[in-house]
Amino acid sequence: MAQTDTFTRWSVIASGEGGGRIASQFFDRAENPGIDDRVLVMNTNRADLRNTIDRMRGTLQDERGEEETMESHALEFGSQQGAGNFFPNGEACAREDLDRIVSRIKDFGTSDAFMHVATLGGGTGNGSIPYTIEQFKTGLADLEDAGATEDWMDSVIHTAFGVWPYYYEQPQRHFNAVCGLSRLLRTADDTQNADMVLLASNSQLDDEENGNGRHYDSINDAIITAIDLMIGAGRETRSVIDVKDYVTIPSQMDAYHFTPAVATEMNGQVYELEYMLDQAAENTYVPMDVGTTTAAYAIVRAPESMIDDDEISEPEVYGAFRDWTTKHDINVAGQASLTPKRGRGSDVDVLLLLGGFDLNPLLDHSWDEFEMLGDSLAGTGGGTGGELTQAQLDRIVDNLEAYVDKNAE
User: Fold this and answer.
1) Taking the model in full, what pTM does it have?
2) Are residues 82 and 211 in the same domain?
């Protein structure tokens, strides 16, 4: 199937050191369907930002110098060096430099969708990403010259990828994570924030919980693989499934949190499609009961040669997905798609996007730490301009509990 120039154009906006590590690995990929080089990494700490740029330069396919790469793909924001692992400080820094953030994103040109990336245990990305999404969704209310934005920004779809800290990490990180999830899902006035919230857990993807650099790279590579499969379906596909399909019905259901479940390099000449879906479902990126899923999408990526030779077809993918949901007694809103990848061979990749599931298995790992710190942190400032009032914390808790309770029914 020939490529066209009509595929969805994505931009990746990553904030904080963890988000920057993930974003830097986009440049490791042979292809970034729909993304190209529209990747911006942001940080309040220049040293951390330079570390991210060094990783990116190690994989970029050109010979740009550090300063040129910084200018093209990086932004230091806020007047303070770091957020002190306190998410209100990250939000305050983003509010302070919102005009510069918007300007840099505009430099990428027209985009149809943003993938916002942050690790939820920290202060910078976890503070800034929910805030910037809300600003874009509400017409940049905090920007003095909001009229300087482009018309295309009004229709951009905002997806967010949030990464949960290791279960053994300090309570402050779990406090941040719970607050970050709530703020990605709901705004302060209890309306939907991100159009789609994707979640991954470090401990789920690294069951040995080593937490060293090699395992972070492995976790980040798994995240990039899921995003590649998700985005690639909107670029080259035999049946149309794209970001608007992912977000429309789940938003109407108020069940727009998802986690990827992935199985790659399975022999399509040996394994049945339903088995491949089962294998993917065993590799969810957060702890969950698959049976609580209320929205699901299946993307099957196969070599062009297998599709052209009719070794795998759209009707087979549809049928396998229907049989898989029936077998697991999952009554879902969702679609399935077959998308090609270049080359021959028989390796098939499967992505399940599972949404609207019961979030309690994930939150159970963090709620005690969150409650332990909540009272002591409410009503305090973080030293770099951020403040968390008791009323704000109460709203964060109420919003999250209402959303979780509804999706646990």
Assistant:
1) 0.91
2) yes
